[in-house]
What we know:
- By secondary structure, the chain is mainly alpha-helical.
- The protein has helices at 6-20, 25-59.
Amino acid sequence: xxxxxxxxxxxxxxxxxxxxxxxxxxxxxxxxxxxxxxxxxxxxxxxxxxxxxxxxxxxx
Length: 60
């Protein structure tokens, strides 16, 4: 699912890394980190479903 998206995921992870270094801020930022990666997963999952449907139609 992450083919071609690994650099984007790395940059997304780096964007939250700076805030986690400040200790107590991690308590407030971590939920946003988890929510962002959950959204990325859902978007990539839908993308894979569309690609699978397209390849199924083309192979028929």
